[in-house]
Amino acid sequence: MEPRYVALTKLLLNDISSGVYPVGTSLPGELELAEKYGVSRGTVRAALDQIQTLGLISRRKRAGTRVEAAVPRSPEYGPTISTLEELVQYGADAQRVIHSVRNLVIDLDMSARLGCPPGTRWTEIQTSRMSPVAPAYPLAWSHVYVRAADGARIRNLLRRSQSLICDLICETTGTVVKEVRQTVRAVGVPAELADKLGAQTGAHALEFVREYYDQSGALFEVAISVQPADRFSYTTVLQRQASPNP
């Protein structure tokens, strides 16, 4: 199930492109939109953030929200990735398994590793990805860190849903993923994960560190995944797109 703000974004984009809200007119206020579409004001605000990023609307205090274009603007270059699922690049049949969930207080070492302030409370979620085609060992093992308040909200959903953890947070809190920063490096399989992954300690692997930032620029999730080299490949495609007319 997609987050509410994503569904509302699609509805509003369709209404703008179809002329329900023509270019040059103003959208109804947030409260009116919330009532019309049966969602919270926070969901409306999150959807408008997404639509503004696409260049379809402008928002000014006391002036409201104005429709500026009927179709999204296109950048000159862009990756073909359109969803966070594509960024993660696991097969559709790969199942997430939850192994442990625990609360912790970030110490100095973890603060340097994760980029979150020492002394703050976070939730650590250990997960693996399993393929029914090769079920003997996981494709990957992940340590996912989310803010403690968000962890409490999604804790009961983790074992019932295969949605990305960031999507669960967005769905339950109204958070919008504004930016994902990804770092990939070659590593050896850590000793503490060797048995879990069915690999030799020090064997070739890739480590993915993904940092998720919300609409205010705050870090709300860090995912650190280790994938043995013989079970994973990563492909990125950049596609030249037509430049908008000046």
List the helices and strands and how they pair.
Elements: H1 4-17, H2 30-37, H3 41-53, E1 57-60, E2 64-67, E3 77-79, H4 84-88, E4 95-105, H5 108-114, E5 121-130, E6 140-147, H6 148-154, H7 165-173, E7 179-188, H8 191-197, E8 204-213, E9 219-228, E10 238-240
Antiparallel strand pairs: 1-2, 3-10, 4-5, 5-6, 6-9, 7-8, 8-9
What do you see in this structure?
- With 246 residues, the protein is of the alpha+beta class.
- The protein has 2 domains: 4-67, Winged helix-like DNA-binding domain superfamily/Winged helix DNA-binding domain (Arc Repressor Mutant, subunit A, Orthogonal Bundle), CATH 1.10.10.10; 84-231, Chorismate lyase-like (Chorismate lyase, 3-Layer(aba) Sandwich), CATH 3.40.1410.
- It contains 8 helices and 10 strands.
- A 6-stranded antiparallel sheet has the order 4-5-6-9-8-7. A two-stranded antiparallel ribbon has the order 1-2. A two-stranded antiparallel ribbon has the order 3-10.
Top keywords for this entry?
246 residues, alpha+beta, Arc Repressor Mutant, subunit A, Chorismate lyase, 2 domains, 6-stranded antiparallel sheet, 8 helices, 30% strand
Unreliable runs, pLDDT <50, ≥5 residues? 74-81
CATH superfamily of the largest domain: Chorismate lyase-like
Residues in helices, as a percent range: 25-40%
Which fold name corresponds to the CATH topology of the largest domain? Chorismate lyase
Note the main sheet: 6 strands, antiparallel
Give the integer mean of the pLDDT values.
84
Number of strands: 10
DSSP helix count?
Answer: 8
**Radius of gyration (Å):** 21 Å
Summed up, the domain count is 2
Shape: elongated
Q: Which structural class do the helices and strands define?
A: alpha+beta
Indicate the CATH architecture of the largest domain. Answer: 3-Layer(aba) Sandwich
The end-to-end distance, rounded to whole angstroms, is 39 Å
